[in-house]
Amino acid sequence: CSSILLDVFDPERLVQCPYNKHHQIRARRFPYHLVKCRKSYPRVAKELTTCPFNARHLVPQADLRDHISNCHDKRFIEEDIVSESSDFQRRQMNPVSTWQAPPCDEDWDTESREQLTSPFVLGMANDGLKRKHRDHSVTAWSLHFVAMWVYGTSCRAVMRNAV
């Protein structure tokens, strides 16, 4: 059974640390422990190599070739590769879409130049070089909502406190 599956089915399983044989770590905490021990044991870390199929497998560099040929997690990677290649072949057999993007009517460069020549000013209409004052009549409802947003209370309460 694969070590990945064992960790999923039994996260409380004890795993031996490759840096210090006296460390017995719960499977669910093992990746975090590896990072911590790598910093604590730099000399041992230089001698160990990570398995290409499972980052939790740290083996001596001299034993890596043997580990790769016998690694249980290698099967999962090989199955993924086979699955991906068959998916790729299926996609190649399907007809290619003829969809094309519709033409774009927007010109962001022109819009940005226009905005540079006439900056936005609150209460001013942006009509090229001509600027005229907009009609901003204030309604009771708009004051009410602004007071609710700014003060967290109604306009009447704000006016009572101001008097």
UniProtKB/TrEMBL annotation:
This is Gametocyte-specific factor 1-like. Residues 14-41, 48-75 form the CHHC U11-48K-type domain. Keywords: Metal-binding, Zinc, Zinc-finger. It comes from Dromaius novaehollandiae. The keyword Lipoprotein does not apply. GO terms for molecular function: zinc ion binding.
